[in-house]
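tool_log.txt
---
The assistant was asked to compare two proteins side by side. It first ran the structure predictor on the initial sequence, then on the second. Raw inputs and outputs are pasted verbatim so the downstream comparison step can read them without reformatting.
(1)
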Amino acid sequence: MMLKDQVAVITGGARGIGKEIALRFAGEGARVVLYDLNPAQLEPTVAELRALGSQAEGLPVNVTDPAQVDDAVQKTLDKCGHIDILINNAGITKDGLLLRMDVAAWDAVINVNLRGTFLCTKAVSRLMLKQKRGRIVNIASIIGLIGNAGQANYAASKAGIIGLTKSVARELASRAITCNAIAPGFIQTDMTAMLPDEVKQAMLKQIPLGEFGTPADVADAALFLVSAASRYITGQVLVVDGGMVM
């Protein structure tokens, strides 16, 4: 029970990687609070966590809206008393080649992925500074490290998250707050399931370990980065990609 009595906020926690992280943290004793835009997906995930014995909560939140984020953090504080862990996982894609990408597609991805991470980090870090403790983990992507054709907006948002992570790590370190990022490779989720088979096979050939990752692989990395085992690690990007970037 590595996270016993700790409160973990997970954005985009209703499905995919966020849900897997919630399940892993709950299994280690954490009280998880999920922020997600979709109430229809949020409710069954919270019910699943509670059925496993977790004190789970769910709040419908648009992470691009400062008022909604601040309200959700205050409600979490009122109910739980403290926030020890923040996982910035909420993210979207709107792919398209640069010359065909409209401003709306650019803004939507930057707003959710990067602005959302900024707003949630800003709101939660206020509490962590008072507590003089905390763990922040941002879900980036290997696309933020290497780029990808057709994903200029997504790559820019994830590269921005990596830069934000390092700056936040420097600003908050004196109060025993760490901030790190995870850069997943090709992870089997609902988002990647929509890709054509030929695209998946082409990607598989680029992975030295010869298989796609799972949300559990990312959850394992997140658990390490919020546990006592990572006490002396901050400002880092942990790549979870089966060697794809290599």
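(2)
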Amino acid sequence: MTIKYDYSLKSYNTFGLEARCKQFIEFTTVEEAVTTSEMLRDAGLPYLIIGRGSNLLLTKDFPGIVVRSAIKGRHLSQLADRTALLDCGSGELWEEVAEWSVGQGYSAFVNLSLIPGDVGASAVQNIGAYGAEVAEYIDHILAIEISTSRPVVIEAAQCNYGYRQSRFKGEWKDRYLICQVSYRLPAGEPLRTTYGNIGDELRRRGLATPSAEQLRQVIIDIRRHKLPDPAELGNAGSFFMNPIVSRVKFAELREEYSQIPSYDVDDEHVKIPAAWLIEQCGWKGRRLGHAGVHHVQPLVLVNHGGATGDEILALCKAIQTDVETKFGIMLKPEVNIV
């Protein structure tokens, strides 16, 4: 277990913002997570549970305890129904797990390749990309209930997963320390090759029937082209969620904006790319002070160097105002704003 005081969080948020916390705790085992829960109760201070900070905007110093898991480990076991159960420590890097699982012959995480963050955060955020969401594969979660220090097993069905949502982000916020996530991986699952511009890129490369490894590389290349590397340009990936609107609302918008793109959600709703809405409002590539909108992917807000959390938040609010004024849609941030 690592315990630090008056600790800088700059290396724990991918925006690269300078902020400090009163105390920092990193646990590496389930037993240390139990001890951490006891410390949180005894301290009587506010606490913030983080992963690698790839979905975090810090607007100020945190006046309490910041906690993160560094529990490692992967174990793959074959089940009788031609699926496998993959148990992962919550501190495992998601991209390493995605790469490793493909190497083991399972394609479940191919479309979720190169998503930053930890395994624990995947279960909180319900990470998703290119037509896939991790909730499709989560079987159960091992966590420590902070109020009792009791280990609990939470079934995926209890988590109320939705688009970038779960009970961990709502009523269960700050209730658990996630220690392990178990995923059920089907064998021989068909690859998803039609979402967004994946199909176009596969055709460009002459890959009519790609392998899982080939599809994974295509998705990695697309993401690297569209999304800046946080090590070079501070960002938290997609800053806003793609709004889901009724088909009635969409029909009204399409009458005025005939080129508006969409993806079917169900019989009554469609999803509109937030990036398109932001670009139509003229924000692509623009800056406010040291914060800006990425010149390739307008869904990404960036730190051009020296930005504060308040500057990025002001940019967020300006974009929200313009999109709501033009389209009548309020964009919701995907990142956790503290």
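---
observation on (2): The helical segments are 30-43, 94-103, 119-125, 198-204, 212-226, 247-256, 274-280, 309-327. The mean pLDDT is 95.
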